[in-house]
Write a structure and sequence with these properties.
elongated, 4-stranded antiparallel beta sheet, Rossmann fold, alpha/beta, 13 strands, Jelly Rolls, about 240 residues
């Protein structure tokens, strides 16, 4: 398969309008060059937006009856004559629906990321990976490390944040940045970082894991450069 942008939509918080703008063109159709994986309750967002996934992965222990019917896991209910329209059914083939065991070591989201890295090529964007469950959020940030280990670019996004892991270097153009702030947080305790083009620049600074040194920096030049001289850094572009 040629390189595509791979979107994985998980079962956490999603803003429907944000997701629609990322995935769809002005006519509401899925954009070209996108491969879309729905993870468990992530189906609910796609059901509301009536967007067909290319792959469905999960144990489906938390999805609605409507979503289960839309992928054929339950028989469709008969529609009353007074109803305005037939229930939406995803146009996804049975062998593209991968039902996982409820009792497993990995989360559904991690399984989806591993699937994407095994069978697909392209940048991976995680949606629906934030929300009220901080344990899930931290787990999903940790999953970004799979990309560092395997040479994949994995990004976690919601309407307020764009999160990446950087092992070597990253350039952010001011006119293309996501939001107003850039925070650099050490992912490993041996992280040393050089920053240029920011309001607060540093030279080979040790970013210790028990300090908040790198929070809320601002790009002041046309572009900013983050060089990770050693270790791995979490880079968060954010907006209020």
């Amino acid at each position: 398969m040629s390189d595509e942008r791979i979107y994985i939509i998980a079962g956490g918080h999603v803003d429907d309008e944000f997701v629609k703008n990322l995935l769809c063109d002005k006519k509401g159709n899925k954009k070209e060059g996108i491969y879309l994986l729905a993870v468990d309750r992530g189906l609910e967002c796609l059901l509301r937006l009536k967007i067909n996934p290319d792959e469905v992965i999960g144990d489906f222990d938390s999805v609605s009856d409507e979503a289960r019917m839309a992928i054929g896991l339950e028989p469709r209910k008969k529609v009353k004559k007074s109803d305005d329209e037939e229930p939406f059914v995803f146009d996804v083939l049975p062998y593209h629906i991968r039902q996982l065991d409820v009792h497993k070591d990995q989360t559904d989201t991690e399984e989806a990321v591993r699937f994407a890295m095994r069978y697909l090529r392209g940048d991976i964007v995680l949606l629906g990976a934030t929300g009220t469950r901080i344990d899930h959020v931290l787990g999903n940030v940790a999953i970004l490390g799979l990309g560092v280990l395997s040479g994949y670019n994995i990004i976690l996004m919601d309407e307020h944040n764009k999160i990446s892991l950087v092992k070597d270097e990253m350039i952010i153009k001011k006119k293309e940045q996501f939001g107003d702030f850039v925070s650099i947080i050490p992912y490993t305790d041996d992280t040393y970082v050089t920053l240029t083009g920011f309001r607060f620049n540093v030279e080979n600074r040790h970013m210790k894991t028990n300090l908040s040194l790198g929070i809320s920096n601002v790009i002041e030049d046309d572009e900013a450069k983050i060089v990770v001289n050693n270790g791995v850094a979490i880079v968060i572009e954010s907006r209020d």
